Amino acid sequence: MALDWQDPQDFAKHLKRAATSAGYLMWQLVRNRQRCGAKFRREYVKEPYILDFYCPEAKLCIECDGQPHFTSEGIARDRARTEWLHTQGIEVIRFTSREVEQDTQRMIDEIDAALKRRLQGDPPPHPPAPSPPEEEKGS
Would residue 73 count as lying in a domain? Predict the structure, then answer.
């Protein structure tokens, strides 16, 4: 999400308090070094953006995409954001809110594989596609 507030730290705090159920579940799955011993931060400020979940050690960003991400404007914004993060050496993996809540094991496996690859120094696959619109997810 692009920064709209004067102080990015204040906006990140607001986002933490306003977490969605998918965001809360994701935090429960990645916090306290549960994934490959890697430490994640929630609502991490990497100006000009705030990353949903970020592991500085692996330079891995996990995004939980809700409905605003599935518009043509949201997809374009996410694509530009992901490209910029790639220029910073940060790999981005995206999950829809539905995937977080309904396909949790596959999501965990994907996060763990990305962490292992990143922590071993292997290059990321380039670049990941944005999350598909909800209607394409098949439900």
Answer: yes
